[in-house]
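Quality-control log, excerpt.
Job 1 of 2 completed; input and output follow.
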Amino acid sequence: MKSLPVTSETLNVARRVVWFMEPEEALADPVHFLAYAMTYGTVEYLKALKGIVVWDPMNSMRF
């Protein structure tokens, strides 16, 4: 599975929702990162990920 892109927005979200890992390490594991983002993230954090992560119910998630 490929990593999520490292941008200022994704790094900011990663720092806040996966506080116990380095942001780059969190983004390298997208399933783990997204589980934490959806559990602990705010609406603003999820909006920041819009366009980076696409949910397609027929094909799971695309990055």
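Job 2 of 2 completed; input and output follow.
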Amino acid sequence: MTPKRKGTTGEDMGKKDRTKEVDLSTLITYFEIHNRSEQKSPKTVLWYNEVLGMLGDWLAKEGRSTKVGAISELDQRRFILHLQARPGLRGREAASTHTVANRVRALKAFFTWLHQRRYLRENPVAELRVPRTDELLPEPLTPEEIQRLFACLNADTALGARNHAILSLMLDTGLRLNELTSLPEEDVHLEQRYVKPMGKGGKERLIPFGLGCQKSLAHYYHFFRPQPALPHVSRFFLAIDGRPMAKSAINSLFVRLAARSGVERLHPHLLRHTYATYFLLNGGDVFSLQQNLGHTSLEMVRRYVHIASRTAVVKNQSYSPMDRMGLKGVRSNSHAFSTEGFPRHIYPNAGFRRKRQQKGAPPPARASRRAAPGAAPIWPCPRLMRGAYPAESRSSSTSQMEMGSFPSARAKAIMSTTSRLGLRLWPDSSLRR
């Protein structure tokens, strides 16, 4: 008797055929229940629901079937093109490549789950690859921009002291916005100078901060922090009414700071980039930075290494030996960006000749290579001959010179030229030195 193969019975085939007729919205609900039972974060569950809801709305708008068995790989690729054409945040014409890639990962996770649960006989996203992303290096805030931000805050007021402490803590620890708003009072250790935020995936970590940040936090906590409005409120940063600060309040704060300081590119996550860059520039190692930022791998930390290396190269331009010597006749170059103590002009003598002609002055006479009448003739290029001969005579006859290790073919050519022109190789003793 031949044993039956698993999954090939008529009952199983009928079950698979019936699951193809299940609507997409029903399976999205099942997928949400699965994610919640796996204790995934609420933001992750919300992200999956948002992306899959966008897929259902697009299918209905295009007049296509929302049955899960009718969604092909081609439909998903067209949906990806629709995602790439959608407008992005902060006035961008299109969504960023990282946003599109994350949405495609959500699609792959959902349809792979359907295939594993046997809602689909074949996985339509098996050959679907995540689109490439642009590897853009973020520009950290400069010390001048940071100074302008703090100059807009009055630390002697309740709001100013709180905002000063928020800015100091984010710059000195690299906290995410969600970690800042959910930071409990008992996890801010002012005496030991470290905080213990709850990061992604429910993982806590310890991040130290400096003396300046400690002073700012203590000033807010002991003098201006209001009493919590309710007994269960335990957040460190509170609003004026004693309630926890929302993320929208922090975003509004940064919008006002950007307008008042003139740093238009300011946003909360830029302080995280700034912290990581200056942490490496000040001598920190990548492993400590990985732990402080809460990343599980070094892949996310490597781009900060590139930023720090580039910034260090720009700063080292001011230590150029040639520029510090101040040699005459050496043209000074500069890039579009200018470091401290580094001249911005490219050619210091540029336009000198043109200005003289505009004033009506005659152009300066060009130096002649021929010697003045009655003076000893001068060799046209003394630097070419300097050090070529270890010993020579003061006579004009080149036959009495000791050639040393100078190439014979070149020496004969120079000797013939000097004999024909009647020149002396070394008109004065200073050239020999």
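Post-run check on job 2. DSSP finds 17 helices and three strands in the chain.
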